[in-house]
Every structure is written in C-alpha cells, then in structure tokens.
Design goal:
Blueprint lengths: L2 H5 L6 E6 L5 E6 L5 H16 L9 H11 L17
Antiparallel strand pairs: 1-2
C-alpha cells in the first residue's frame, strides 16, 4: 500500500519525514499551521523585501559555484516540505 494511502493523506497534503536514532523512518502529516515560527519568519522576510526591494540582489557566479560545490549531486524536490529537524 502506498505511504500516502496508509497515512490517509491527499496529494495536496504536506508530510514530514525524519530518521530516528534507531534508523526507523518516521512520517507524519503536517497540519497547515504546524510551525508558526516558520510562518512568522517568512512573513518577516516578505515585509522586509517589500520595504527594501533595493537590497534584493541575484547570487553571483562565485556564490553559485560555491553552492554547487557544497551540495554536489544532491537531488532536490522543490515541492517537498522544508520543516526543521526533530529530535526523536
């Protein structure tokens, strides 16, 4: 059975997963307002960008090369939730 089916989550629902110290994978459904700190921080960033659009600059080629060197061949799913680590 698919993971989403067994957790009773729809395709649009967000999930979080982590690995416990005993190597178990833990998957949970994320409620929309599960982390108010993330929403508060994103709101702060949004208001700062609106107030100071002149501060927004593209990344230089040197920064892009450094970032590519740090992540190597890591594949990233831009639709994946970006919740913080949780101690299990």
């Amino acid at each position: 059975m698919a993971v989403r089916q067994s957790l009773v989550v729809e395709a649009a629902d967000k999930t979080w997963y982590g690995v416990a110290q005993d190597a178990r994978v833990v998957i949970t459904r994320i409620e929309e307002d599960a982390n108010p700190m993330v929403h508060a921080f994103l709101g702060f960033l949004e208001s700062d960008m609106i107030a100071h659009p002149e501060s927004i600059q593209p990344l230089s080629e040197a920064w892009m090369a450094r970032l590519k060197g740090l992540v190597g061949q890591v594949r990233i799913d831009i639709d994946e939730s970006i919740e913080g680590d949780v101690d299990l």
